[in-house]
Amino acid sequence: MSLPILVVDDSAMARKMLIKSLPPEWDVEISQAGNGKEAMEAYRAGKAAVMFLDLTMPEMDGFQVLEALRQEDLNSMVIVVSADIQPVAQERAMAMGAIAFVKKPVSPDMLNSVLKQYGVI
User: How many CA atoms lie within 13 A of 38 on its CB side?
Assistant: First the structure.
């Protein structure tokens, strides 16, 4: 059975680049969301066992998504993918439940490494 993953970014180009960086042999069902509100709806619909989450988005940013997941005791492996590489942003995201922080633009090697580290592939 395919693993449901969700790619969340307000940039369609960034979503496309991340999807292209995923391991080709990985058996996944990919969904996309353009903001945090859409991400939460997709999560509740069972489409986010693994979530790739941008931090800077309209309507509901990545930190608000992490907070909502925590408040609702929802379980998803969240990998933050962001150009905001300030240590304080990374620390905050990890403290809020993200399992990893990947710098944009993503590279297939970096993504593979993170996914293997957490036993997702």
Answer: 15
